[in-house]
Amino acid sequence: QVQLVESGGGVVQAGDSLRLSCAASGFDFSNYAMGWFRQAPGKGREFVATISWSGRSTNYADSVKGRFAISRDNAKNTVYLQLNSLKPEDTAVYFCAASTDYSAFGKISDFRSWGQGTQVTVSS
Question: In the chain, where do the E strands start and end?
């Protein structure tokens, strides 16, 4: 079965950086787009970034563009999210998700497998 395990969250100060990792198993990782989403306290889950099956195409939410970078290593079945210049409003649980499509620009509803999430807390 599909398993996604996130790691790398923590408590940091504004302006700091973090690198999140998501180890995937149970499916043919290299054939599918992957994504990162987040959910802040009292808010719904929101899109952060997606990456195509090959890693050549990426897509970002406007709120993180220029600060966050998504990447993947298909040999390691792992997707990463580099978080730079963190702000208090980036505080959330960050979730990794696997798509049923190969494109970084597919529908959000294509992301049907989810990890348990990793907490990122940014203090001012």
Answer: 3-7, 10-13, 18-25, 34-39, 45-51, 58-60, 68-73, 78-83, 92-99, 111-114, 118-123
Query: Residue 92 and residue 78: Cα distance in Å, rounded?
Result: 21
Q: How far is CA 46 from CA 36, 49, 59, 81, 98, in A?
A: 9, 10, 13, 15, 15
C-alpha span between 109 and 51 (Å, rounded): 15
7-52, pLDDT tens digit by residue?
999 999 999 999 999 999 999 999 999 999 999 999 999 999 999 9
Neighbours of 26 (CB within 10 A): 12
| CA–CA distance, 105 with 108 (Å, rounded to integer) | 9
118-123 and 58-60 as β-strands: parallel, antiparallel, unpaired?
unpaired
Q: Tokens representing 97?
A: 């998700």
